[in-house]
Amino acid sequence: MRACPLFVLILVFFGWGLVSPMSGSGVPEEEKPAVVEKKEKPRAKKEAVAGKASEKEKDKEQENTVTLKGEELKIEVELDGVVEGTKSTAIAMNLDRWTELVVVSVVPHGTFVKEGDSLIELETEKLEEKIEELEQKLPVDELELQMAQRALEKLEKTTPLSLENARRAKLQAEEDLAYFEDITKPMRERDAKEDVKTTGDYLAYAEEELNQLKKMYEKDDLTEETEEIILKRAQNTVNSYRWMLEQTKTRSDRTVNTDLPRQHEQLKSDLELRQLNWRAGEQASRDSLEKARFDFEAKKRAFDESKEALDEYKKDYAAMQVKAPHDGIVYYGMSQRGKWTTASTVERKLIPGGKLTMREVFLTVVDPDMLQLRVSIPEGKLKDLKEGQNAVVELQWNDEEEIGGKLESVSYVPFSNNTYDAVIAFSEEGEKPKMYPGMNAKAAVTTYLKKDALLVPKNAVHRKDEKRHVILLGGKKQPVELGHEKGDKVEVVKGVKAGDKVVLPKVEGEKAPDKEKDKEQEKDKEGEEK
Questions:
Q1: Which of 313, 377, 468, 506 would bridge 420 by S-S if both were Cys, CB 3.0 to 4.6 A apart?
Q2: Which residue from 482, 461, 483 is spatially nearest to 470, judged by alpha carbons?
Q3: Are 194 and 314 within one domain?
Q4: Does one domain contain both 232 and 369?
């Protein structure tokens, strides 16, 4: 179809040449088609020129299109990282009692050690003296504890008995006082009175008998010797009863007014004293028992503390004999996110006479055969990273060799500098260059890979409202759905297929076709042809 106007032009041109000679050959005027041909010639030429212009425009359009074809689209995220060991043991002194950590010697930084090798020698002379002192003191503490235990056991048995005796004595005093007040005192008062009365009666009887004898003997007007004896005996009896009465009155008065009141007071005092003794004795006995218990507990605690201290000092002594927990390389300091942040600080302490701080990591043993790469992720690169993505690692000291790996984990908790952690596990296949913890590296993580992606320049995608489209050759606006971007190109995932031609926008500075100028050029060409 493109050659059709040119073919018409050639025919017209040659036809015109053939007719012109015949016009002067005597052919009748009416048979000459010259007039008709003159009218048809400009139209044919115009068609030819228009065909050429159309061909130029189509060629130009094809020059400003891109033919879609499947090609590999690989998007990578580049990250900085540090090699770190997956099997590492931090060495720190976490002792129970001993606090003096004075360095005698230590293995150099970077030393390869075997499991059980000595890593550091610390001063232990004072600790050994402390252990010896406790070993001598412990038997004495144990003996004192046994004595206190026996004393406590005795008090625990005797205290209830003592309390019961005191209570019983108090009750007896109460009973004695009550009995004295209710029975003894009234009886003895009455007994005293009865003694006086009885003695008085006896005296009265004796006096009456004496008086009767005297009367009887006075009537006889004669007093015989026997009668005198009888009267004298009667008189003596009277005198004796008088004396007895006097004594009985005195004793009765003493009993009633002195002895009984005193005995009463004594019984009351005894009762009060026994009540006080019972109360005080009860409290004292319990206090003594409690004190014995406290004493026993104190001695037991002292013994236990001495024994515990001895055990802990011995344990501390053993812990100060620092051995390598496994094969590996000795690093000074502690690793944080793969970096040895405390190495310079610790190194100044790891000299003869240097003092370490408790629970401070001063050495780390790292197995060099078990490594991984810890990378730091800026927040802007976090969204496309996922576990399981492939990665290629290049060490800073040897960027000519690549090490395969896989993104093993991603942490979404930011650090203080708004970066995130991720771990890349190295592939076990292939030979790897020399690599040790602390080495810097760069990792390229493949976040997207498609072998037959359709890519178009970004400026070939037009946007209207929220929809996007491209312009195909011929002017058709084709809606598309976009995927990933890489550089100045973007992936089209829906709407086009391989082989489609997408029109590119005019390059800035390129002039639009000048139609007037084209018309003038066509006229010039037409004049030349005439």
A1: 377
A2: 461
A3: yes
A4: no
